[in-house]
Amino acid sequence: PSPEDYMKEFDFDGDIYVVTLSAKLSGSYNSAELARRLYLEENPHKNIAVIDSRSASVGQTLISLEIRKNIESGLSFDQVMEKVNKFRDGMKTNFVLESLENLRKNGRLSGLQAFIINTLNIKLVMGATPEGTIYRLDQARGIIRALGAMAKHIEHDVIRPQERILTIAHCNCYERAVYIKDEILKKVPFKEFLIVETAGVSTLYANDGGIIVAY
């Protein structure tokens, strides 16, 4: 969205929270932050937060759920932001993609690497760094083995799962999302889970068959 698009949404009687795709992957954070500054020039008493999710898709959903929880508990704008920033910094994001084509197009993977990986049916298990860039966690032959490797990584990586929500986004592969949910919950006692569809630019990155997990 352009700054003008964001500014139209700021005309709302209440505090505004914008949760964007990682600033390392998209210009949406910078666009929203510019809109915030421009809007506050004429509305200096408005509370507007622009939050770099350092994640994507369901990671943004998970942060939004945390915002709502803290608002409903009666916290002030500043208190909500303190809680949410701490939550964001402790959040983890993993994903497995059926196709690497969009990673290749965005310079995340060389054409030769993508060709070799696709030819050998190798699926990468990817993660997000604390800064919001992506990196390879593991790899496996075939999508089912890759999802199993991701579930195993989450089992060893998660802290206090009984206090966390397992969130999963899928791109046109609901059955696959249910499969990875079941595999993870066999190993890890998350408090609850949520499955959603990808939307917007995250669908382009995930492509058909992509699975994104945040917790």
Low-confidence stretches: none
SSE string, helices as H and strands as E:
HEHEHHEHHEEHEHEHE
Kindly report the average pLDDT value.
92
Give the strand content.
15-25%
- Adjacency order of strands in the biggest sheet: 5-4-3-8-6-7
Structural class: alpha/beta
Compute the number of helices: 9
Shape: globular
Q: Percent of residues in helical segments?
A: 40-55%
Q: List how many beta strands DSSP finds.
A: 8
Instruction: Give the distance, in angstroms, between the N- and C-terminal Cα atoms.
Output: 26 Å
Cα radius of gyration in angstroms: 18 Å
Largest sheet: 6 strands, mixed
Explain how this protein is built:
This protein has 215 residues and is of the alpha/beta class. The chain has nine helices and eight strands. The longest helix has 15 residues.
Features:
single chain; 215 residues; alpha/beta; 6-stranded mixed beta sheet; two-stranded parallel sheet; 9 helices; 8 strands; 21% strand
